[in-house]
Design brief:
By secondary structure, this protein is of the alpha+beta class. It contains 16 helices and 24 strands. The strands form 7 sheets. Strands 4-5-6-7 form a 4-stranded antiparallel beta sheet, with no helix packed on it. Helix 3 crosses helix 4 and helix 11 runs parallel beside helix 13.
Length: about 525
């Protein structure tokens, strides 16, 4: 942000100390500090006339000019996580799942549609913008507030997005370690980055810079000219404005927070131990799922192909308005027999995932008559080599905890279900690691809070946790595994002694050395109980 006094630009940084710090882009010197927020400043943008807009965990957005706060925008019930200026309007996205449109300091409209925190906003064209959310979806909106369409391809929270230079598409990225390139309303390309992508920026050339949870900044060059050494050097000089004094660097003071974030919602750490509720996955893009289902149905062999009536039954029976007929389940079982090797099964699995949240459907699939077939199907797909399918199956199992019939089935088949889950090779699949840990958390909650008269459940969970400790390293998955262990041993001397005898000390040591705050704090708390 250049100004008259600093033609080379000013770098603004939001701080965990509830301040905004301004640094010289040419000398790295601290120029000034803006103070008016009462909690972490997590969003910043710059408008016309050098106005600055900030968003904070204190649930407000503030407008600044000439280092003074001109106005404070109140109304959100959660942290303001992202900001977008569109013409004469200001848009704010919040952990309260809403987007608000402001003009002259007044909230003119509140947009609802996402089911979890809004993580990023970007302008698509003069009349439309995009939002992404921890619910795993991206939504396209009109500036007036109408939800136009939903994109759903990520296997977890979508943290960031940016528009392509031609304005015809955009790139999204998030928790599942993938960057999805969208153009003309369809998925054009998927880039497997390998670690959760926290932020990205599309350059005018079309090249993409992203920052991930491994503290790496990576550049994906879509411009073939970027492959030359000369062009790369020029690019880096322009991008980073490299200082001739190699010793100079930018140091930003920080302050440890006593809070952690769960799906973008700020909660005290103590609320994780013990965890008392099941984690389920309710986000759904029905239009996208059934579009893929119809397309793939044309491509499968005749023996697997669904009839028009079958497709109509599958589409009409997920509304939850009335119990589905038996023909629905026959069509579903037929679709679940589609070959996995051709990567056509994922829309069927996604259909099953959100269908499991409907009690009538869950009762039928988990009944004494069909439960064995359901578990067989789950175990078969868990052995698949396709990461998307495995992630979806783990989410299906998590959703089965919603209703008593599913819980009974999962308790009676604990060993059979967990065996393939523990065998999964997920070194390069953060989303799979996260889902392995989430499933175990649900099992621990089940045995600690619901019990169902089953003995030895927590013992089995602790042994499973010890096995996962040998293969899980992604920070989010580590945190969830700590939640599972912490909930299992919380307030129980016997289980704490049992955990001491298991091979989890190296895992706890690794987590205590993690630089992600909620991971090392949770590890310290668990260590205090069992060491």
């Amino acid at each position: 942000m250049p100004d008259e006094d600093h033609p080379d630009g000013v770098v603004l940084i939001g701080s965990s100390e509830a301040t905004i710090q301004a640094f010289s882009a040419s000398t790295n010197a601290l120029l000034y500090t803006l103070k008016d927020h009462t909690d972490i400043v997590c969003a910043l943008t710059v408008g016309r006339y050098r106005t600055v807009v900030s968003g904070s965990w204190d649930k407000t957005a503030k407008v600044w000019l000439n280092q003074k706060c001109l106005m404070t925008l109140t109304g959100h019930t959660g942290a303001v996580l992202c900001i977008l200026i569109v013409g004469g309007y200001l848009l704010t996205g919040s952990s309260d799942t809403s987007i608000r449109r402001w003009k002259a300091g007044n909230c003119e409209h509140t947009m609802s549609g996402h089911s979890d925190s809004i993580r990023d906003l970007c302008l698509l064209n003069e009349s439309e913008f995009l939002s992404c959310s921890s619910d795993g979806t991206i939504r396209q909106w009109s500036i007036s507030g109408e939800s136009l369409r939903t994109y759903g391809q990520h296997g977890g929270s979508v943290y960031c997005l940016d528009v392509l230079p031609d304005g015809r598409g955009f790139i999204s990225a998030g928790e599942d370690g993938r960057m999805c390139v969208w153009k003309d309303r369809r998925l054009l390309q998927t880039i497997a980055h390998g670690a959760p992508v926290r932020c990205l920026c599309v350059l005018p050339s079309g090249d993409v810079i992203c920052g991930d949870s491994n503290k790496m900044i990576c550049i994906y060059a879509f411009n073939p000219e970027f492959s030359t050494t000369e062009t790369r050097e020029k690019f880096f000089k322009e991008l980073y404005k490299i200082n001739n004094d190699k010793k100079s660097h930018l140091t930003i003071p920080s302050k440890e927070s006593s809070k952690v974030s769960q799906g973008g919602k700020v909660v005290p750490l103590s609320e994780y131990f013990p965890k008392t509720s099941f984690t389920t996955f309710a986000n759904v893009d029905k239009k996208g799922i059934f579009g893929k289902l119809r397309l793939f149905n044309l491509e499968v062999l005749d023996e697997h192909r669904l009839s028009r009536k079958d497709l109509q039954l599958l589409e009409s029976s997920v509304s939850g308005r009335s119990p589905p007929p038996q023909e629905y389940f026959q069509a579903l079982w037929k679709a679940l027999r589609w070959p996995e090797t051709e990567n056509r099964l994922f829309p069927v699995l996604d259909l099953l995932r959100f269908s499991m949240l409907e009690e009538d459907i869950s009762e039928e699939l988990c009944s004494a008559e069909n439960g064995e077939s359901f578990v067989d199907c789950v175990c078969r797909v868990l052995s698949s080599e396709l990461s998307t399918n495995r992630t979806l199956v783990l989410r299906i199992l998590c959703n089965a905890f919603r209703h008593p019939c599913g819980r009974r089935l999962l308790v009676s088949h604990f060993d059979r279900v967990m065996a393939p889950v523990l065998r999964l090779q997920s070194e390069f699949e953060p989303s799979v690691q996260t889902m392995q840990a989430t499933l175990l958390v649900n099992y621990v909650v089940l045995f600690r809070r619901h019990l169902l008269g089953v003995e030895g459940g927590i013992t089995k969970c602790l042994r499973a946790a010890a096995e996962l400790c040998q293969s899980i390293f992604e920070p989010e998955a580590c945190f969830l595994l700590l939640v599972a262990i912490g909930t299992a041993v919380h307030g129980d001397d016997e289980y704490q002694k049992m955990a001491c005898k298991l091979d989890i000390q190296n895992f706890l040591s690794m987590c205590r050395g993690c630089e992600v705050e909620r991971v090392y704090k949770a590890a310290e708390m668990v260590s205090n109980w069992i060491e």
